[in-house]
Amino acid sequence: MALELTDVNFDAEVLKSDKPVLVDFWAEWCGPCRMVGPIVEELAKEYSGQAVVGKVNVDENQSVAAQFGIRNIPTLLIFKNGQVVDKQVGVAPKNVLESKLKAHL
């Protein structure tokens, strides 16, 4: 299951992670986010141990969303060594997200 990321735990779970991290910025009311959500959950299961996969609810965690300039959702960022190394704005099929994640394993 994807890790619930918040303003409080984001630094420890994402920026200080020794593994690549895929972060899904989403909100309850966002239709496209509901399309990406199941894909993110699948990736969390399939890459458990190799990468961290988490979700940030932008309505509840506005500091983190602002810190990374999230203007549209869903936005998925891939972090490695505390830096953003890839980005996907909007809905993308699983194979696209998977190839972006694999590139940083």
What does it look like?
The protein has 105 residues and is an alpha/beta fold. The chain has one domain: Glutaredoxin. It contains four helices and five strands; from the N terminus they run βαβαβαββα. It has helices spanning 10-15, 31-46, 62-67, 94-102; strands at residues 3-5, 21-26, 52-57, 75-80, 83-89. The chain has a five-stranded mixed sheet with strand order 1-3-2-4-5. A hairpin with a 2-residue loop joins strand 4 (75-80) and strand 5 (83-89). The longest helix has 16 residues, at 31-46. The mean pLDDT is 97.
Give a brief outline of the structure.
With 105 residues, the chain is an alpha/beta fold. Helix content is 35%, strand content 27%.
Head-to-tail CA distance between termini: 19 Å
CATH domain class = Alpha Beta
The overall pLDDT, averaged over residues, is 97
Number of helices: 4
Instruction: Choose one word for the global shape.
Output: globular
Number of structurally distinct domains = 1
CATH topology: Glutaredoxin
The percent of residues in helical segments reads 25-40%
* Cα gyration radius (Å): 12 Å
Order of adjacent strands in the largest pleated sheet: 1-3-2-4-5
Record field, number of beta strands: 5
Q: What's the architecture, going by CATH?
A: 3-Layer(aba) Sandwich
- Topology as H/E string? EHEHEHEEH
Largest sheet: 5 strands, mixed
CATH homologous group name: Glutaredoxin
